[in-house]
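User: Show me sequence and structure for the first protein, then do the same for the second.

Assistant: Starting with the first protein.
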Amino acid sequence: MNSTEVIVIGAGIIGASCAWQLAKRGVRVTLIDDGRAGATAAGMGHLVCMDDDPAELTLSAWSLELWRTLTPQLPESCAWRGCGTLWLAETPEELEIAREKQRRLASHEVNSEMQSAAQLAEREVMLRPGLSGGLWVPGDGIVYAPNVARWFIANAGDKLTHLVDPAIRLEEPTVTLQSGRQLRADAIVVACGLGANTLLGEPWLRAKKGQLAITDRYGPLVNHQLVELGYGASAHGGGTSVAFNVQPRPTGQLLIGSSRQFDNEDRELDLPLLAAMLSRAQHFLPSLATLNIIRCWSGFRAASQDGNPLLGPHPSRAGVWLALGHEGLGVTTTPASASLLAAQLLGERSLVSPAPWLPARLISLEASA
């Protein structure tokens, strides 16, 4: 049996970042993965400051600060672009929502600027006329998340060992791999998304299926990430929903989202829902109807019971740590999530209290339900 200091299960962007943070602190880490890419490969790769609840705003604002220290180090293959986000208001009522968002962002020193309808039209000529205005958040951006995860692994140095050999059983302090190999560690970090439910034998997460589409390469058509102000309600609501979210990729393509379906783990595209998503996108960008869609796909976000990540010690299994439940904000919150997890595991003091993200909070929620 091989021994290491920390085992991290899951080499998506969260697991890879946790392993990178620990290795950079001198910890010997074994990173285990099933090689399937998962949510990291299926998502949009946006770095966007979200503010739908205080914990989400705290984590995403801090994480974007940390991203600004990372992006100068990333190779071009990671496709970092500081394109900012334009939040779009269709009505005067939504424009007031934009003003409230601006105030919340300012409370965390996140810069944003209100935009008139004329300013929107000047920034983005493809937008339909008649919008009431919006909010520009210049500090947001995009990355290509799979290559960022690979960079974390490659950059971690010789303290990190990466094994593509799925974990099939966890009996702390031992992890058994599909090959039959067994590893023992002082600490085991579970960061394998929805696979954690099976590995732990515990229902920590719910699946939120999403679908995306991408156009052919047309060159620069859109300058900013474009999101409707109803996106937050769609993201955090129950049931099935679509919301407008379009991203300009460095390849000259437009990445189009988004949809959500709770508790659906069928990989097949839902064509009526995909049609509704594309129709919503054309409502804001009518000329999308003239562009070729070259690929559509689905993926699964892993959502916790209250919608915020699980970052910290397992409440009842000594030596097991969770880095799970990021839903649609895993890429945005990657560096902050990894920093919180590493600080707790190593007994360091973090710049932000981990309390809102401790897994034990969900036990308290169940007890009070």
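Switching to the second protein now.
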Amino acid sequence: MPKNYTKDLIRKEFINLLNKKQLHNITVTELAKQCKIERKTFYYHYENLTQLVKEIFDEELEIVIEEFNETLSWEESFILGAKFILNNKKLVKHIYESDYRIDLEKYIFSISGEIMRKYVRRVGQTTKAQEVDMKLIAYFYQCALSSALIQWVATDMKTDPKAITRRIGELMDGNILLSLKRSEKLEKFTQNFEIE
């Protein structure tokens, strides 16, 4: 699918603006001026800034899905998956402090979920773990990782998330495989467990 130059330009300039100022201070008029396009051109591509924010998160999530590397640990996969956040700390803080916080939190939860579901499934191939337990384990780690990252954003991003993630990995090393092996010995779980 060919890239749309104007949409890419709007996205790039919006990210630049959002790295400099809070979201409620950015207008379509200012963004159009920054892009050297007319306001109606912006509205040709997007209904409003909300749609643009959601599209950025959707596209970044697609990148995380495409770039997932089967050979990496969950820690390294998570760090790689969070690179947009780590490279755009001011943008993320500005979105967190705006009416779009829920979109940011959903994006972080989705990143964590993609990574943990794929990682647990890969490790689970060496076991006879129950399918429902693989989902529960991935969901548990998804919740923990996304909560930790959201809390990091909420507390002004002062610590090094890469160091913290690696440290958590060292502390929890082997626990996912152990949990999957325990699943083999547990009674069949009959409750339906579906998460998105």
